[in-house]
């Protein structure tokens, strides 16, 4: 529930959304523990929300949530 609300808000922040949709400007710190995996998962989610064929209105944030859990174990198990 909280994740859905947050993702809806973030996906409607046009500068952030447009940057994620462009794909060519994803920059991340290669020295970081995450190596951009969370940013890439978020960009993939935004693309699924905004660029997909509209035959279905549901989008699953499963891959994004898995990346969050991977780097922040306190979120493991919250469905």
TrEMBL record:
Catalysed transformations (reactions): Thiol-dependent hydrolysis of ester, thioester, amide, peptide and isopeptide bonds formed by the C-terminal Gly of ubiquitin (a 76-residue protein attached to proteins as an intracellular targeting signal)
GO biological process per UniProt: protein deubiquitination
UniProt keywords, alphabetically: Hydrolase
InterPro entries, alphabetized: Papain-like_cys_pep_sf, Peptidase_C19_UCH, Ub_carboxyl-term_hydrolase, USP
Record bears the keyword Hydrolase: yes
Organism: Paramuricea clavata (Red gorgonian)
Identification of the protein by name: ubiquitinyl hydrolase 1
Record's keyword annotation contains Hydrolase: yes
A GO MF label: cysteine-type deubiquitinase activity
Name of a matching Pfam family: UCH
USP domain ranges (all copies): 1-79
Assigned EC number: 3.4.19.12
């Amino acid at each position: 529930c909280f994740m859905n609300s947050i993702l809806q808000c973030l996906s409607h922040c046009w500068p952030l959304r447009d940057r994620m949709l462009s794909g060519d400007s994803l920059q991340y710190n290669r020295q970081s523990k995450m190596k951009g995996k969370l940013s890439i998962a978020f960009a993939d989610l935004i693309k699924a929300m905004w660029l997909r064929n509209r035959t279905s209105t549901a989008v699953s944030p499963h891959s994004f949530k898995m990346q969050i859990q991977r780097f922040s174990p306190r979120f493991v198990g919250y469905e």
